[in-house]
Structures are given as C-alpha cells and as structure tokens.
Design brief:
Layout lengths: L5 H4 L22 E3 L4 H5 L3 E6 L9 H14 L4 E5 L3 H13 L2 E7 L5 H9 L3 E5 L3 H14 L3 E2 L5 H7 L1 H10 L5 E5 L4 H15 L8 E7 L4 H4 L21 H11 L2 E5 L1 H14 L6 H15 L8 E6 L7 H7 L10 H7 L4
Parallel strand pairs: 2-10, 3-4, 3-6, 4-5, 7-8, 7-10, 8-9
Antiparallel strand pairs: 1-2
Helix pairs in contact: 3-4, 3-7, 4-5, 7-9, 8-9, 9-11, 12-13
The chain binds ligand F0G.
C-alpha cells in the first residue's frame, strides 16, 4: 500500500479535527513480514510475523505517536516541544519539529544513546542536553520543564503519543484480517504496550475483531521493574532503548498484561543478542537490540511449549538496526585487511 499520512489513514479513529494541521512524514503503513521462524516455531506450527517499524521515516515506531503529538502541539500554538529519551523519541521529535518549523529540546542520558539516534537528533537541529543521569532522571526533569515553561511535552505520557501508536494494532488487523493470538513487543517506558492494547480494545469494542490477542511484553533483565514489581534505580542492558527503571506507563502495561491474559517477563542480554543475530542472519531483518527482545521472549515461550500450537504471533520490531552501529561493531567480528590480490581475497573468503 502506498504511504499516506497516518493521521489521514485513521482519521476517524484519532482525536483530530479539520483545524488540526497535519504534520506528517508519511509514517506508518509498515510491512507485516512473515518470518520463516526458528525450528521451534515450525515444530509447533506457529506462524511468526514481524511488524517492521524500522521502516518508519525516522526508523522507529515513535513516528506514529510523534505525528499526532506534534500536530496537536502546533494546533495548540506551541513553538517548541520537549522530550526525555533513550534516543528514538528524540530523533522523531527532532524530525517532526523540523517539519513543523518549531524547536525541539531533548534531554538524554549522557553516554547511553546509540550513535545513529544521536546523529539523527543532532542533524535535525534539536537542542540536545545530555545529563549525567539516566532516562528516568531525564523524564523527571522534562516533566517539570514543560510545566514551568511554554514547551509542549511529547513523551508518551502525552496521550496523543499513545493515540498515534495504537495504530500499529489497526494495521496488523488490516493485514491479517483479525487479531493474532499473540502480540509480543519490548517494554521500556511502557507507552507502546499500552498503545497496542488500546488499539486492539477499540477494534474489539466496535466489533471489528472477533478476539483479542494475548499481549507479551519483554523487558531486559537488568531493567525489568515491572517484572520485579519495584523500580530499578540503576538499570543496565545492551538494549539501551529500554534501559528504563521507572516506566511512566507502568499501570497501562499491567492492564494490557492482565486484561489480555498475557505476560511481562525479563530476557537476558545474551538472549536479546541471540535473537538480534537470528533476525539479521536468518531472516534478513536488521533491528536494534531492544527490538530483538520481543523475539527473545517468544523464542523462550516456544522452547517451553507455552505458545498455543498453530497460532499466529506478531512481533513489533520497534527500531532499525542502523540506529545502533556500536552494538554491531562490538558483536560481529570484522577481520583485518588482507593483501590487495586475488589469491589473498579468495583464501580469506574460504574459496580455496
Ligand atoms: N523499542 C525501541 C527501539 C524503543 O526506542 C523503545 C522506547 C521501546 C522499544 C520501548 O517502548 O518505552 O513505549 O515501552 N524508547 C523510548 C525513547 C524510551 O526515548 O526512544 P516503550
């Protein structure tokens, strides 16, 4: 399907009116890619689908929420938007603010934002303030900043962000014709699982889908406050996008889990990296580590026989792998150069 503004595609289901200026980069309408799946999936007859959100304009799902949040901010007369971010929200806020001709101010945890995301945010012209603290500290500061100064908050505690992001569920249903049995995704600040669930619930309420999926959320072991039932003061994980110890939408995540009969569990960095490698090397999908957490979790469920046989599982692959070249450099070996001749190259290629 050719792309059009997300707000136009789902106008009747979003809080916009004729006066809302649509700030769009033709986000959404991302492909739902059938996966070959690991052997465990094939053994159970389970079909996996990847909702490849890395194909959004700034290469993550954040653009769905940002088109609406920035459009509504402009409608309200805002001259500037602000966000705390682990990197993707800031890249998206910066791009949509540039599109709208307003300022973006972003507060980032110094040293923990993947290089591609930092580059995007910088090049789009946002004002970047790095703090000596983590995402949770940054969000606390941005909340106060936007209360005190005339700046619109565009983190997912802004309800327009959730409204925009719920469209992932709409698109999955458009493509599958119904809800899948399971929908798995990584959980950080927990806005996205809240948004997915809202989208499915709305369709179910209106009789557009016969069933609701079980929502499976996965946090990184070193940043798993919802799994542990208590905030994590010093979250740590290779998946820097979800390096969050005190999720703002905690309650929304619990509701999605409990109302759907789903689960929120932790996956280790090793499991995340194994799934990340599998997606790249066996499915041709390069995602950032946080995105691979969804498959890491589902893979474990498959191994343990916890996924209903013959069911469909949608994985939201939240961000593109090019965002995080640092992880690629660390995790995948690059051989040193060889002599510039045929023999050396053929030998190095394992052809002789
Ligand atoms: N995957 C990626 C690639 C993300 O960037 C995020 C969140 C998540 C998953 C988790 O989504 O927070 O709604 O539970 N990134 C935010 C940011 C925190 O600042 O870019 P969530």
């Amino acid at each position: 399907m050719s792309r059009r503004p997300l707000i136009e595609r789902y106008r009747d289901r979003l809080p916009v009116n004729k006066a809302t200026p649509v700030v769009s980069l033709l986000e959404g309408s991302t492909p739902l890619i059938p996966l070959a799946g690991p052997p465990e999936a094939r053994a159970w007859g389970v079909r996996l689908f990847a909702k490849y959100e890395g194909l959004n304009p700034t290469a993550s799902f954040k653009d769905r929420g940002m088109t609406l949040a920035v459009s509504k901010a402009v409608e309200a007369g805002a001259q500037a938007v602000a966000a705390a971010s682990t990197g993707n929200t800031s890249a998206s806020a910066a791009a949509y603010a540039a599109r709208a001709g307003i300022r973006a101010i972003v507060v980032l945890p110094a040293g923990y934002v993947a290089l591609g995301k930092l580059a995007q945010t910088l090049v789009h012209g946002a004002r970047i303030i790095q703090i000596e603290g983590n995402f949770d500290d940054a969000l606390g500061i941005v909340r106060e900043l936007t209360e005190r100064y005339p700046v619109a908050l565009v983190n997912s505690i802004n309800p327009y962000r959730i409204e925009g992001q719920k469209t992932i569920a709409f698109e999955v249903v458009d493509d599958l014709g119904d809800a899948p049995e399971y929908h798995a995704l990584p959980v950080g600040n927990a806005g996205n699982i809240t948004a997915h669930w809202k989208g499915y619930r709305e369709l179910h309420h209106d009789g557009k889908i016969a069933r609701l999926p079980r929502m499976l959320g996965f946090q990184a072991e070193g940043a798993a406050p919802i799994v542990r039932g208590a905030p994590v003061e010093r979250p740590e994980t290779v998946a820097t996008a979800i390096r969050i110890g005190h999720p703002a939408s905690w309650k929304g995540a619990l509701a999605a889990r409990d109302e759907s009969g789903g689960a929120i569990e932790a996956v280790s960095d090793d499991e995340i990296l194994a799934a990340w490698r599998y997606l790249a090397q066996s499915e041709g999908l390069f995602v950032e580590p946080a995105s691979a957490a969804a498959l890491a979790g589902v893979w474990r469920w498959l191994r343990e026989g916890r996924i209903e046989p013959e069911s469909r599982v949608v994985l939201t692959l939240t961000g593109h792998g090019l965002k995080d070249p640092g992880t690629a450099e660390r995790e995948v070996r690059l051989d040193p150069p060889v002599a510039a001749n045929l023999e050396a190259v053929a030998a190095a290629a394992g052809l002789v």
